[in-house]
Amino acid sequence: VQLQASGGGLVQAGGSLRLSCAASGQTFSRYFMGWFRQAPGKERECVAVISRSGSSTYYVDSVKGRFTVSRDNAKNTVYLQMNSLKPEDTAVYYCAANLFQFTQSEEGYKSWGQGTLVTVSS
């Protein structure tokens, strides 16, 4: 599956952004989808995961209550709604697809989008 992420940009602290990740090439609904981010000088971390149907989600503690992951299988798209953004959310955000497992480990994600930069100013 090929992934194309979009929606990043510059936003002030407290603001909101919605990231989108459009998939093509394979049956999107077969994939668990994850959002990861990598801040400057830091390792990449999993931010959120959503199951194939969208009924199950995972969030890293630092974004719980602020970020929401969702998907529209009819549109082959997964979203990350980010509210109450903080400067520490500044990072390149990646979407990724995992055919076999609902996991926050990078290991199972074989398809990755190109990344979209989110910058949160204080």
Radius of gyration: 13 Å
Mean pLDDT: 97
| Helical content band | under 10%
Total DSSP helices: 0
Cα separation of the termini: 37 Å
H and E string: EEEEEEEEEEE
Question: Strand count, sense and closure of the main sheet?
Answer: 7 strands, mixed
State the low-pLDDT regions, or none.
none
Oligomerization state: single chain
Shape: globular
- Total strands: the figure is 11
Strand content: over 45%
Structural class: mainly beta
List the keywords.
122 residues; 50% strand; single chain; mainly beta; 4-stranded antiparallel β-sheet
Describe the structure.
The chain is mostly beta strands and 122 residues long. Helices cover 0% and strands 50% of the residues. The chain has strands spanning 2-6, 9-12, 17-24, 32-38, 45-50, 57-59, 67-72, 77-82, 91-98, 111-112, 116-121. The chain is globular, with a radius of gyration of 13 Å. The termini are far apart. The model has no long low-confidence stretch (mean pLDDT 97).
